[in-house]
Design goal:
Radius of gyration: 18 Å
Bound molecules: zinc ion
Helix content: 25-40%
Number of helices: 8
Distance between the termini: 57 Å
Length: 279
């Protein structure tokens, strides 16, 4: 596994694929977003969970990242990672599932799983390769399983989170979503390595852009529920689609929760750069 000193000495693009827990690989690239006059980076990450006999791709990545993701996957296969037998997507939104047609075409053995509502309308030719999952359902990768678990912070009604039962890695989709600063060299780092990351600031930026409902909900209730889920499952690592992976749950989760609570209290600032009115 890539250690911290080595990760920090590398160029961001070369830090991926990065093994964040044994057999769990982080792949993809950053997405540049302009917000409040600053340049933030967001992730639209994908992860490969490798069992003894099969691998599961979690999320498909942002469409602009498909070539990078294919390169990362090919690197992993060359290292002996088993072929993709499953594709789990957390919900029906482009940065999460936008590549599913491409993945099902490229890997003809792959089965799409999760809440598979409506995908057959776009891809009727793959309907027989779509497998419904509900909470507690597991897919077997050989020596480890991936389980559908309660999606505490969700974007759509159809969202499921996934959980790797072997290394206790939680894949929370839009949960734990926040941006990072390219200038600080945070790209490709786990949350605990990005020491200058201002979690309340970057969490509130993301809430403004993507999780608008958090402005109208009591986030204390959601944070308590998150604590319950993490304790019940014994989560050791968190692999969010839009945030840096969390490898010290006890130390970092409270900071993200503080960010969520702070963001909920901030007034809405709009989702785009405003164009100055003509004089
Ligand atoms: Zn998302
Ligand atoms: Zn970045």
């Amino acid at each position: 596994m890539l250690d911290q000193a080595t990760a920090l000495s590398m160029q961001p693009a070369d830090r991926m694929p990065r093994e964040i827990a044994p057999g769990v690989f982080w792949i993809g690239d950053c997405l540049v977003q302009r917000h409040k006059g600053k340049v933030y980076h967001g992730y639209n990450a994908a992860f490969l969970v490798a069992g003894k006999t099969a691998s599961c791709l979690v999320e498909t990545g942002h469409p602009k990242d498909f070539p990078v993701i294919e390169r990362h996957l090919n690197e992993l296969f060359a290292r002996g990672v088993p072929p993709i037998k499953y594709l789990f997507v957390t919900h029906q939104e482009t940065p999460h599932c936008g590549g599913l047609g491409r993945v099902l075409k490229t890997y003809p053995e792959a089965i799409l799983c999760g809440d598979v509502s409506d995908y057959h309308l776009a891809f009727p030719q793959y309907e027989h390769r779509m497998q419904w999952m509900k909470e507690g359902d597991e897919i077997d990768l050989g020596g480890r399983t991936l389980m559908a678990v309660e999606p505490v912070i969700r974007d759509l009604r159809t969202t499921w989170w996934a959980f790797d039962t072997k290394e206790r890695v939680l894949f929370p989709g839009d949960g734990f979503a926040y941006s990072h600063y390219h200038e600080d060299g945070h790209c490709g780092l786990v949350a605990e390595e990005a020491v200058s990351l201002d979690l309340p600031d970057v969490s509130s930026t993301f809430a403004d852009l993507a999780l608008f409902w958090t402005k109208f909900a009591d986030m204390n209730v959601y944070c308590d529920r998150l604590d319950q889920l993490i304790a019940r499952l014994g989560v050791k690592t968190i692999a969010p689609t839009h945030g840096l992976p969390i490898t010290d749950v006890k130390a970092t989760v409270p900071k993200v929760q503080q960010g969520l609570k702070a963001a909920a209290l901030m007034p809405e600032s709009g989702t785009n750069e405003k164009v100055a009115p003509a004089a």
